[in-house]
Design a protein that fits this description.
The protein has 103 residues and is mainly α. Helix content is 69%, strand content 0%.
């Protein structure tokens, strides 16, 4: 096996582990290792998944530090976008009417 293929397979394994870590972080779903008979393989696979979690954390930290990414709160953004419409429906006034810093 050439060094190029070994590198390619290693990177693929890391990416799969990071994807599984992302699924775990975003949905709470975890890979069930109890189906494996070998305790050693379970331990190895648990370490493999833990490595993916560390890579995922490192990637997220790196992306936050670049400044090109920002974190959004989907619920807050939805309310913020629709706040003026809801306020107008319920009170008949604009959100600008409630701004104390307006001249």
């Amino acid at each position: 096996m050439s060094l190029g293929k070994l590198t390619h397979y290693s990177i693929d394994l890391v990416l799969i582990s990071v994807i599984l870590a992302g699924v775990h972080r975003n949905t709470g779903l975890t890979f069930d290792t109890s189906h494996f008979n070998s305790v050693d393989f379970r331990r190895w696979f648990g370490n493999y998944l833990a490595f993916g979690e560390k890579c995922y954390d490192y990637t997220v930290k790196l992306l936050k530090m670049t400044g090109y990414f920002k974190q959004n709160n989907l619920v807050f953004d939805y309310v913020k976008r629709n706040a003026n419409e809801i306020l107008k429906e319920q009170t008949g006034r604009d959100i600008a009417d409630f701004n104390p810093h307006q001249d």
